[in-house]
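Quick one: structure for this chain?
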Amino acid sequence: MQSKLKVLQVIPKLGYGGAETGCYDIAHYLPENNVGSYLITSGGELLKFIDKKKVKVIRLPVQSKNPILILLNSIIISIIILLSGINIVHARSRAPAWSCLIATKITRRKFVTTFHGTYNFNTNIKKFYNSVMVRSDLIIAGSNFIFSHIKENYSEYLSDRKKLLSIFRGINTDYYDASTTLEADEDNLFKSWELIVGKKIILLPGRLTAWKGQEMFFRSS
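Got it. Here's what it folds into:
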C-alpha cells in the first residue's frame, strides 16, 4: 500500500499578506485531497484560524536572517522531515528557504519555492542571498511579470533540471461572491468613512509598503 503524500510549507510569519493567505489556503486544501499538511512558521495572526485537526503546525524562528539560526533551523527541519515522512518541502521566503534547501539536500526530498515579489539586489552578496528562491526543483512565479523577472535576473541559477512556471493567485469564490449583500455593513462603512453615496470612489487596497505605490497614488490623485 502506497503511503500518503505529505507536504511541508515553511513561511516566516502567517500574517494577512498574499503569500501568507495563499499558504493558509493550501494548508487546508491539501488534507481535503488526502495529502498530509504540515506548516512551519514563527507565528502570526492567521495561526488562530488554522484547523489543527487537519494541519500540523510547528513553531520555529524561521523569520530570522541570522546565519546561525538558519543553520539550526535546517537541522531541526531535517529531523522533522525524517520523523514525519515529509515528501515535499515548499518555502515561501528567502531566510526559511535557505534552511529548507540545506534540509532537503540532507534528506534528499523534493524542494519547491514560490517567488512572490521582486527582491532588491544592489550587491552580488544580496543577489546570492536572493538566489535561494531559484535553487529549488520547482520554482513557482506568482505572475508572468515575476516569471520574466526571474528569467532576466537569475538565469545563471536556472538549468534544464529545474522547472519554472507561473501559477496565478486565486481567490476564495465563496468569500468573494458578488451576489453577497451586506447592506448594514456597507452603510456603516460609508458613515464611518464619511463617504457620499453616488460619488465616484477610488480604493487602493494593499499592505502599506513603498513598493506597492500608495505614495504615487496620492501624488497623482
